[in-house]
From TrEMBL:
Keywords: Cell wall biogenesis/degradation, Lyase. GO terms for biological process: cell wall organization; peptidoglycan catabolic process; peptidoglycan turnover. This is peptidoglycan lytic exotransglycosylase. It comes from Rhizobium leguminosarum. Residues 106-265 form the Lytic transglycosylase MltA domain.
Length: 374
């Protein structure tokens, strides 16, 4: 066992003791792994997290996957058994890991605003800059969560928040990609980080995360629980949407509680049925893509997730799947914290909205790098 951070340790285990491993079929991961290899070798390596597992550590596994086509679920599992060693991520506070889920919404939009389509998706403004220790302004220097700010007339300040932008801060700058019918729909696309846009003429577009206004993400579900509006045991995306629909006069107040605001870029739609391209710059595979804390973990690494209480994604069976770390998110914080991508469209949203489950996280580390963690 090696200690790599104060709040978790990695515990070497065996595939034989990995409950659910022998029932999984990770065959679908190989095409995604080939895409990850092209991204690393042809574009640029992924950022290395604090666990110090790098793209270079990952490349032997990806190279072996390049020409491998599994003939059966057993052969797919045998590939990972041959090339990796499993390590359980154990939090030192004794708590288990935790998973939620996300999806790609389908949103009806117009390329021009009117009385119905009134709520825009914005591109990244040109006065939004990346912050680091060198340019972080006074007042934000103690909060490293602020990674974006506003450069205006030579001065760097915090960027206006959700309320200011909703009230028109960005109007007239030509940043709108498209307009939606519902402010709540736009908000939840911000939470998900991507969407398929369905235009009135039948065209399908795609938007994905480009940047944020810099403010810390504040969950409105937590706010509604604390106010006694929704019972903690009942919280879900569906429950939050239902509450907002019942309380239209309070929508702004609740949404503005989350000061974080997301900007988007238009993404190519080579295949509308393929998953969105997210932080790892490869298409997300439904049910097999995992968002992780990129400050700790590095994109492309395999994780086996076991969530015994999560049963609705696998027809009543406990969720036990090998996944690839391909995305991240403001709310995904910690070594054993993940967000499962359930796919695109309303059905995927129904599946994602109620996932809030304890889970075991096992990271598969390629053999050459695994020796550093004994």
């Amino acid at each position: 066992m090696s200690d790599h951070a104060s709040d978790f340790v990695l515990q070497a285990i065996s595939f034989d003791t990995l409950e659910g491993w022998k029932d999984d079929d990770p065959s679908g991961l190989f095409e995604v792994m080939r895409s990850c290899r092209r991204q690393i070798t042809d574009v640029k390596p992924y950022r290395t997290g604090s666990l110090r597992l790098s793209s270079e550590d990952l490349l032997p596994l990806l190279a072996a996957a390049e020409d491998f086509t599994p003939s059966s679920p057993a052969s797919a599992r045998a590939f990972f058994e041959t090339h990796c060693r499993p390590f359980l991520i154990r939090r030192t506070d004794g708590n288990s890991g935790f998973v939620t889920a996300f999806y790609e919404p389908d949103i009806d939009v117009s390329e021009r605003p009117d009385e119905i389509f009134r709520f825009p998706f914005y591109r990244r403004p040109d006065d939004l800059i990346d912050l680091d220790d060198a340019n972080r302004p006074e007042g934000l220097e103690l909060d490293k969560a602020y990674v974006f700010g506003r450069l205006h007339e030579g001065h760097v300040t915090a960027y206006p928040d959700r309320r200011a932008i909703d009230q028109g801060f960005l109007e007239g700058r030509g940043l709108e990609i498209a307009w939606a019918k519902s402010k709540v729909d736009v908000f939840f696309v911000h939470v998900q980080g991507a969407a398929r846009l369905r235009y009135e003429d039948g065209r399908i577009g795609r938007i994905t995360y480009a940047a944020k206004a810099g403010h810390v993400f504040s969950a409105i579900g937590k706010l509604l629980i604390e106010r006694g509006e929704i019972d903690r045991a009942e919280i879900s995306m569906q429950a939050i949407r239902a509450w907002l629909a019942r309380n239209p006069e309070r929508v702004d107040e609740v949404l503005w509680h989350n000061r974080s605001y997301i900007f988007f870029r238009e993404a190519p739609v080579a295949d509308p049925e393929a998953g969105p391209i997210a932080a790892a710059k490869v298409p997300l595979l439904a049910g097999r893509a995992l968002a992780v804390d990129r400050m700790i973990h590095t994109f492309g690494f395999p994780f086996f997730i076991r969530a015994e209480s999560l049963t609705h994604l696998d027809q009543g069976r406990p969720f036990r799947r090998l996944m690839l770390a391909l995305d991240t998110g403001s709310a995904i914080v910690g070594p054993a914290r993940g967000d499962i991508f359930t796919g695109s469209g309303d059905m995927a949203g129904e599946s994602a909205g109620t996932v809030r489950n304890d889970a075991d996280f096992v990271i598969l580390i390629p053999n050459a790098a695994a020796g550093r963690f004994d």
